[in-house]
Amino acid sequence: MTDTAQIFQFPSAPEAPREKRGPQVEDGYTRIANELFEAVTNSHTCPITLRQMRIVLSVIRKTYGFNKKTDRISDGQLAAATGISRQNVNAAKRELLAMNVLFTDGQKLGVNKAYAEWDFTARPEKDNLKQTRDSVSKAETKSVSKPGSHKRQKDTLSTDVEREAPKTRRQRLDLNAFADQVSIETLQAFADHRRALRSPLTQRALELTVMSATKAAIELGITAEQAIDEAIGAGWKTVRTDWLRNRGADKPVTNPDVPACPHGAILAEWDRHLAAKKGRAPAPVDWEGTRMAGKLEALWAKCWNAKNPSGAVRYDSVESGVQWWSSVFKHLAGSRNFLQSDVTLSNLFNPDTFSLAVNGSLREQGGAVR
Question: Which domains does the chain have, with CATH numbers?
Fold first, then answer.
């Protein structure tokens, strides 16, 4: 008789359920200015197709997501990120480049954050189209229908001018058609302005510009010529009522003795006191014409020769004005309420917000500033 050992299998302790962990900011995030993100996602400021939108958001992820303005991004990378075929990625990217929504710096790609320069009437040049098609693999070309043959492509890519029309025909403008609304001189100046931006006008684009300028004139209490002149001065490719309002075109000059707002000097003082805590100010060229730039101009004029509660004049010269704004930013840099609020340079100059910030009455958010 042999001795045998009996083995008992004890039940193991139940495994504790794992906590489901969703996406966390600590694992990485994409830092983008709210104003630019709102311009991209707004159907009025950025009327692009869903495919083009996916490309723009992917470029933002691959640049701003790595704290870069531009980077080398291949069509294959964009195809992997969006799930769109390389050929369709390439076509959408060329359209966005022609519209100035994207730009290239050598072999690097980035988003043009000066959204006033976006031009949704522009289309890629035909020569570039042929060159890019040749660069796409033949295997992929066979699986894609002929560009423009699909109904949705026709609706998206069609313009008021036939794409096969001679170049000279596309550039001919009939300025006299709108002479009863805007002077020939102003229309010619705008046409020259667009040509200087390498985005020549078509007859349809000119018609839309005049319509927008007329609409803005009615809403803002100015003339259509003033609206177009403002667009030329701001370097815009079109006329928009909201852009003109943000620029202050609807505000009559009530005090011609107030000098122009020294935006660059004031932004430099912001950087000196608050860049490390609230982020750096944008470059002057990106700041000009924005909504907050118009708000700052209004506050600059409002505080000119105005008196503090003590009776002292805030400022009556450009030099004393810059010093006063510097003292304001220095005060805010020491304000716990301001530092813990979600107020940044993108919304500080709203009148109510500015007053609360200076008086230390902002509500603490209890978290990081976004």
Answer: 29-156 (1.10.10.10), 162-242 (no CATH), 263-358 (no CATH)
